[in-house]
User: Which sequence fits this backbone?
């Protein structure tokens, strides 16, 4: 057997081992919320499957595409690291800096904050506990 064959067999064994460990040791406590239909951040109701949702889901998708594009453009630079000169390094650092500044700006404007029902209910519960003490 070659080393690649041994590696593939070893990876399959480790993957199956992790699945078995997860099935044996993971807690199983189902409740109605887990089994309810959930799509695009909203629970679907009978007859009301098409409802409006916030633009923040699109913002997440666009940020994912931008960061994915950044990785796609940085990959050739990393692969050809021996043939790149200081000019290529400066161009890649400039590109990464521009994308990072945009990401920090979005974080500063709270563009990535999505209020969920769970965070709102937990904050209410915490406020009640604070006031009752």
Assistant:
């Amino acid at each position: 057997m070659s080393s690649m064959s041994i590696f593939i067999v070893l990876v399959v064994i480790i993957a199956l081992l992790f699945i078995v460990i997860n099935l044996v040791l993971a807690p199983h406590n189902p409740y109605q919320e887990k089994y309810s239909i959930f799509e695009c951040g909203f629970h679907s109701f009978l007859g009301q499957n098409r409802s409006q949702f916030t633009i923040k889901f699109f913002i997440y998708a666009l940020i994912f595409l931008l960061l994915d594009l950044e990785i796609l453009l940085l990959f050739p630079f990393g692969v050809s690291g021996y043939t790149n000169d200081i000019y290529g390094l400066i161009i890649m650092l400039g590109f990464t800096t521009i994308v990072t500044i945009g990401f920090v700006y979005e974080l500063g404007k709270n563009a990535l904050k999505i209020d969920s029902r769970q965070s709102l209910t937990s904050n209410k519960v915490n406020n009640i506990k604070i006031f009752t003490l």
